[in-house]
């Protein structure tokens, strides 16, 4: 009966039974996954804990080693820096002493030049003062001589004038005496002639009185009347004529004397003016020469002062240029020193990373055959014709450096290729691990991971199978990189 019941199940029961079976399988699978996940989580937590502890221990040991190495390196750096600082300080002290000595010498030269210039200026001022004093004395002497000459000439002229006045007075007195005598003689002659005429007239009158007494008396009366009228009419004119005549003669004599005097005075004034103008021209020429000499001396002093100022400015500029050059040189030397220290530090760091073979043989022998080496030597011995070859020939002494540099560059390229291969291997391993985990989750087999890992064995870089031999590289590293690095 039970078999029949089991045999004759309805579709719903079969479906329900299948669902229960699937649920049971799903529950068992979930339990397995949960157990596996719990196991993996516990294992992962344990590994993480161990990794954390080991990393802490490694970090502590590494820190201790790094502290010790860093302390030693810092001690060496401090010693190097102290020695370098002492050398720099000594060099700067020597430079400062040299500059101080140069400044003192320049200051002494400036003081000597200034003292000599001031002495020359004082000497020139003394010469100028002595010359001005001498010229003033000569001028005073000439002025006194001119005054004495003028006074003597004036006294001479006054004496001559007084003598001439006395002569004129004597002449006038003599002329007056002569005129008085002549007047007396003329008056006597007039009176004598008049007496004679009167006598003759009286005789004739006596002779003719009888004949012409009446007519004569009438005519005489008319004559007397006319004479009286004429005398009365011409008395004032005669007196004025006599006075004017006297004044005319006196004025003529005075005019003649004054004309002679004026002529003499004009001649003396012309001579004095000529001498005065000559003296004025000579004094003006002397003053002009003195002014020109003073201007020349002032110009010479200004030129000397300007030349001294220009020399001082040139020396100051030279000192500034020297200070600037020393500062630039100091900066360049400090830069070179820093670069050298960096190179030394990099050399120390690189020397720590060198292998024993590189320490023993820093420059490995050439891998070329003797024939190839001879060809290379022959080509190097030839005179380069191209510009690049000429530039490269200048740095032929750095051939060993370029050999080591090319070797390091080739090793870097090999390491990069190896890193790429390891990265690809790591990717394959990750994919294999992912497949392995997926197989575990789906209940598959685990040996797939061993198959995947065994396909690509990991070989270390230092292994002899992948280690590259060291060669003496002759070609440039840039050429090697261009042909070896994949694009």
Automatic annotation (TrEMBL):
Coiled coil: 89-156, 245-300
Dynein regulatory complex protein 1/2 N-terminal domain boundaries: 23-121
Residues annotated as domain Dynein regulatory complex protein 1 C-terminal: 396-437
Chief site of localization: cytoplasm
InterPro entries, per database record: DRC1/2_N (IPR039505), DRC1/DRC2 (IPR039750), DRC1_C (IPR029440)
Keyword annotations from UniProtKB, A to Z: Cell projection, Cilium, Coiled coil, Cytoplasm, Cytoskeleton, Flagellum
Role description: Component of the nexin-dynein regulatory complex (N-DRC) a key regulator of ciliary/flagellar motility which maintains the alignment and integrity of the distal axoneme and regulates microtubule sliding in motile axonemes. Plays a critical role in the assembly of N-DRC and also stabilizes the assembly of multiple inner dynein arms and radial spokes. Coassembles with CCDC65/DRC2 to form a central scaffold needed for assembly of the N-DRC and its attachment to the outer doublet microtubules. Component of the nexin-dynein regulatory complex (N-DRC), a key regulator of ciliary/flagellar motility which maintains the alignment and integrity of the distal axoneme and regulates microtubule sliding in motile axonemes. Plays a critical role in the assembly of N-DRC and also stabilizes the assembly of multiple inner dynein arms and radial spokes. Coassembles with DRC1 to form a central scaffold needed for assembly of the N-DRC and its attachment to the outer doublet microtubules.
The protein, known as: Dynein regulatory complex protein 1
Organism encoding this protein: Petromyzon marinus
């Amino acid at each position: 009966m039970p078999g029949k019941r089991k045999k004759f199940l309805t579709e719903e029961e079969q479906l329900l039974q299948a669902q229960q079976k699937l649920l049971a399988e799903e529950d068992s699978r979930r339990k397995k996954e949960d157990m596996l996940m719990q196991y993996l989580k516990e294992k992962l937590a344990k590994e993480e804990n161990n990794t954390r502890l080991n990393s802490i221990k490694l970090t502590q040991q590494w820190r201790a080693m790094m502290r010790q190495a860093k302390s030693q390196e810092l001690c060496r750096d401090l010693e190097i820096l102290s020695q370098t600082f002492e050398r720099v300080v000594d060099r700067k002290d020597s430079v400062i002493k040299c500059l101080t000595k140069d400044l003192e010498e320049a200051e002494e030269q400036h003081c000597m030049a200034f003292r000599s210039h001031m002495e020359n200026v004082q000497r020139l001022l003394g010469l100028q003062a002595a010359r001005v004093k001498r010229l003033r004395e000569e001028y005073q002497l000439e002025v006194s001589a001119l005054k004495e000459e003028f006074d003597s000439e004036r006294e001479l002229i006054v004496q001559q004038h007084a003598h001439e006045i006395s002569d004129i007075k004597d002449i006038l007195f003599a002329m007056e005496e002569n005129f008085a005598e002549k007047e007396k003689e003329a008056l006597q002659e007039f009176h004598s002639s008049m007496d004679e005429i009167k006598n003759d007239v009286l005789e004739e009158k006596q002779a003719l009185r009888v004949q012409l007494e009446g007519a004569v008396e009438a005519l005489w009366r008319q004559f007397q009347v006319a004479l009286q009228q004429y005398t009365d009419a011409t008395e004032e004119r005669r007196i004025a004529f006599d006075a004017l005549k006297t004044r005319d003669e006196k004025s003529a004599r005075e005019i003649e004397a004054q004309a002679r005097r004026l002529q003499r005075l004009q001649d003396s004034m012309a001579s004095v003016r000529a001498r005065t103008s000559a003296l004025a021209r000579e004094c003006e020429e002397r003053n002009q020469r003195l002014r020109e000499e003073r201007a020349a001396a002032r110009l010479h002093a200004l030129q000397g002062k300007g030349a001294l100022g220009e020399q001082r400015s040139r020396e100051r500029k030279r000192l500034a240029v020297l200070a600037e050059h020393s500062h630039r040189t100091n900066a360049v030397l400090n830069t070179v020193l820093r670069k050298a220290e960096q190179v030394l530090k990099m050399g120390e760091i690189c020397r720590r990373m060198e292998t024993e073979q590189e320490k023993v043989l820093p420059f490995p022998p050439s891998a070329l055959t003797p024939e190839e080496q001879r060809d290379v030597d022959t080509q190097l011995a030839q005179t380069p014709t191209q510009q690049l070859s000429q530039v490269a020939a200048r740095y032929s002494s750095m051939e060993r450096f370029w050999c080591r540099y090319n070797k390091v560059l080739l090793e870097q390229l090999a390491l990069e290729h190896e890193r790429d291969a390891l990265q690809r291997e790591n990717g394959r391993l990750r994919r294999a691990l992912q497949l392995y985990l997926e197989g575990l989750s789906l209940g598959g087999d685990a040996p797939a991971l061993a198959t995947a890992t065994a396909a690509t064995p990991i070989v270390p870089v230092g292994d002899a199978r992948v280690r590259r031999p060291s060669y003496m590289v002759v070609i440039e590293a840039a050429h090697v990189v261009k042909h070896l690095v994949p694009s």
